[in-house]
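Predict the 3D structure for this chain.
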Amino acid sequence: MRGNAVVVGSTNGIGKAIACRLARDGFNIVAVGRDKPGRREELLSHLAACSQSDGARHEFRPCDAFSLAQVKACAEGVASDYAREGIDALVLTQGMATIQGFTPTSEEGNDEKKLTLHLWSRIAMANCLLPALRESKCMRGGPVVLSVLSGGVHGPYAKYKTDPELKNNYSIKAAADFAGFYNDLVLDRMAEKNPSINFVHASPGFVASNWGTEMPTYLRYPIRFMQRFAMSTDKCAGNMVKPILQCADGDIGLSTPDGSHGLFIMREKANSGTLTKGHSDDAIDSAWKATQDVLNRSGMELE
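Done. Predicted structure below.
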């Protein structure tokens, strides 16, 4: 076996396709997602069919990533169970498309519909699993944390100092830029603090998945029509797992275009992307502090 991969958002769409592809390539899968009736059994059966090895070991961990409390409980459980064996890859795909405005969670006060899914839950999961990732034993180029969202295609969020949690200037565009920009910033700092781990922020491109099902009817139908011409989830998954397979097989980890190691920005064809012009030490410091504040309110410490 090539190792253990945790895939968050693995019950459908891109996440499910990535979990299947990694199972096919010899990874044991820890599938994380919402546990609706029959979903666990269907997913585990699907992963078993994808596997090429009789010794494959797949499991499902229920978690609603709208809740940071659930993310914390799930991640700490995985980290404890894999403390000695190690985690070799963490893939974060949880997300949704909605035009809904700022919708705070009742217990945490964070926007749940976009920012918690696209940002806070991803950082929380990665942060809790850092000890298990450091115990990776199967990746010659080092373990990988892969966040599939908007690497190289989002804009910068300019008000990171005056509105660091996007509570006062919320809009659909601001939320999209905020989540993508903060993924860059926080993962960059995590890469700096954890040089033995490869951090990747990827853009999947336009994919024929279930993206857009939460949209109003007048938007959902045009999206479904256009998705007839989009990339399949299987093809997308093949591109997204390339850095993981490279690190599994390669002698060295990923490198950025300038040859250094750190956060790797990846576009939809697994080619290298670029950071925004707003990516600075000041922005990193501000995003890191805001993330610390959010995680602290949920009982977590950002390493």
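The CA atoms of residues 208 and 229 lie 8 Å apart.
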